[in-house]
């Protein structure tokens, strides 16, 4: 089985506005799928459609390559924004409540779950006194209770400070690596997910703008090393004689750009200088992730 989630032409309208518009989304087994879009882009609506909390107007959903969603949703855990945590209960009591609701044996699950999300030491503290990050981790524990193979987290890092964000990122990685859980995680900040996501889907105004892998993103955002020299032709001649010819393009009479491979920059500069080329400047030009994200949004 290759795909955990596939949607085809998925559409959900509210009145005459399509919150999710003809969306094809593909999550592969083992992915950490970064589902990125600005506020109101349609992320929550899509997650609600997949988890069965809303019904689509058009299109299809497959979970674990099956359209028998009632069955397959049992293997899925969901945490939607505004987590379903009871403020007056402790972490343990919250998990107890949900265990009972799901017909699970609390004695075998709860302590392990609290340890997994790093809340084992919260004792008698009520959830209302938790930090937002702790509440989010408790909500993730609730979504994990039924031992899902696929977990959807809607904006789990929204509003968190850098420490809280790091904790969620580490938890997501742990769940993915140690428990082999495929994870879809939504966010409006591409950069926050770029450290962990293996695949991305970008949604804007309900429309899927693009879907790409981590490798493709790195390639697109890698930027270039721009070297300005006095003699471009001679520089190229020198470079072409190297044992590992770098990937370059000539921009004008003084400028060459190389695919930015940081470990090669020094070597290129040294080789050129050694062979009598005057280097006027050498810098990395190009996009960072947020620039790239903004560009994708603006092109739509
Ligand atoms: N029940 C509803 N009734 C009417 N409009 C809705 C409803 N739910 C969502 N919408 C609209 O659909 C669009 C997409 O909303 P959605 O919540 O899916 O976006 P989002 O990407 O999750 O953003 P956010 O991070 O702000 O939740 C928005 O314009 C929203 O106002």
Automatic annotation (TrEMBL):
Record's keyword annotation contains Phosphoprotein: no
PROSITE patterns documented for this protein: ABC_TRANSPORTER_1 (PS00211), ABC_TRANSPORTER_2 (PS50893)
GO molecular-function terms, A-Z: ATP binding; ATP hydrolysis activity
Keyword Transport: yes
Transmembrane segments: none
Cited SMART domains: AAA (SM00382)
Record SUPFAM superfamilies: P-loop containing nucleoside triphosphate hydrolases
Domain ABC transporter span(s) in chain numbering: 5-230
Domain of life: Bacteria
UniProtKB keywords: ATP-binding, Nucleotide-binding, Transport
Family under the similarity heading: Belongs to the ABC transporter superfamily.
Identification of the protein by name: ATP-binding cassette domain-containing protein
Naturally occurring in which organism (per UniProt): Mobilitalea sibirica
């Amino acid at each position: 089985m290759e795909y955990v989630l596939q949607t085809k032409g998925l559409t959900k309208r509210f009145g005459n506005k399509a919150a999710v518009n003809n969306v094809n989304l593909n999550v592969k087994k083992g992915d950490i799928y970064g589902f990125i879009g600005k506020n109101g882009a349609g992320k929550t609506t899509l997650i609600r459609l997949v988890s069965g909390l809303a019904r689509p107007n058009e299109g299809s959903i497959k979970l674990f390559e099956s359209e028998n969603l009632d069955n397959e949703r049992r293997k899925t855990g969901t945490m939607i924004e505004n987590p379903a945590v009871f403020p007056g209960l402790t972490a343990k009591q919250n998990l107890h409540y949900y265990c009972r609701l799901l017909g699970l044996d609390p004695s075998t699950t709860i302590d392990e779950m609290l340890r997994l999300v790093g809340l084992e030491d919260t004792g008698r503290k009520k959830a209302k006194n938790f930090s937002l990050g702790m509440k989010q981790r408790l909500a993730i524990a609730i979504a994990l209770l039924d031992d899902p193979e696929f977990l959807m987290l809607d904006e789990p890092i929204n509003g968190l400070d850098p420490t809280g964000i790091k904790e969620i990122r580490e938890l997501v990685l742990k769940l993915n690596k140690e428990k082999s859980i495929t994870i879809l995680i939504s966010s409006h900040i591409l950069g926050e997910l770029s450290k962990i996501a293996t695949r991305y889907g970008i949604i804007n105004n309900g429309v899927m703008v693009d879907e790409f892998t981590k490798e493709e993103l790195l390639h697109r955002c890698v930027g270039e090393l721009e070297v300005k020299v006095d003699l471009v032709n001679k520089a190229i001649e020198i470079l072409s004689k190297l044992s590992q010819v770098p990937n370059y393009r000539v921009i004008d009479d003084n400028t060459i750009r190389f695919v930015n491979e940081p470990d090669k920059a020094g070597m290129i500069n040294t080789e050129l200088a050694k062979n009598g080329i005057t280097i006027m400047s050498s810098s990395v030009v190009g996009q960072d992730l947020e620039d790239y994200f903004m560009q994708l949004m603006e092109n739509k």
